């Protein structure tokens, strides 16, 4: 198993629970983070462990302020931290940027629909039509990871 497959499995499991229950289980993120740390430590010793920890800290740094401001949930932060243990700091930051672009695009759809309905005098219906509605950010992060893979930048490990 390499990092690409491990992250694909991690995002698949996170998406399943986040889309259905709006929760990313701690057991999933903790086991993935420990797995990434163990994998890279066994592969490269102390340098591998340091590389993995740097990736985790980068994930924490990327979503810490949005979490404190209420923009993302704790599960989203832990998912990015766990991903960082598998892909390292550089790859994680790229995945985060691609995910942020995907998330911004996804957030525009309900906002534009809401504005259009307001102009037409229709009352919006459903949770996805309100601008204040939340979306599972794991979807945006998974899109960011997919974009990273499609760009041909498969994480090493």
UniProtKB/TrEMBL annotation:
In this record, what's one Pfam family? Peptidase_A24
Assigned keywords, A-Z: Membrane, Transmembrane, Transmembrane helix
Q: Membrane-crossing residues? A: 49-69, 89-112, 133-151
Highest rank taxon of the organism:
Bacteria
Q: GO: which molecular function terms?
A: aspartic-type endopeptidase activity
Domain (Prepilin type IV endopeptidase peptidase): give its ranges.
6-107
Could you tell me what this protein is called? Prepilin type iv endopeptidase peptidase domain
Q: Which organism is it from?
A: Desulfoluna butyratoxydans
């Amino acid at each position: 198993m390499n990092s690409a497959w491990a992250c694909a499995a991690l995002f698949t499991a996170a998406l399943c629970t986040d889309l259905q229950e709006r929760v990313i289980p701690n057991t999933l993120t903790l086991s993935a983070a420990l797995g990434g740390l163990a994998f890279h430590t066994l592969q490269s010793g102390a340098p591998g462990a340091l590389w993995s920890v740097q990736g985790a800290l980068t994930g924490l740094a990327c979503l810490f302020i949005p979490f404190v401001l209420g923009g993302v949930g704790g599960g989203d932060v832990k998912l990015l931290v766990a991903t960082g243990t598998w892909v390292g700091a550089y790859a994680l930051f790229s995945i985060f940027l691609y995910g942020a672009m995907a998330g911004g695009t996804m957030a525009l759809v309900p906002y534009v629909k809401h504005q259009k309905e307001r102009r037409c005098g229709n009352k919006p219906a459903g949770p996805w039509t309100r601008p204040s509605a939340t979306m599972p950010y794991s979807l945006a992060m998974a899109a960011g990871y997919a974009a990273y893979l499609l760009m041909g930048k498969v994480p090493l490990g």
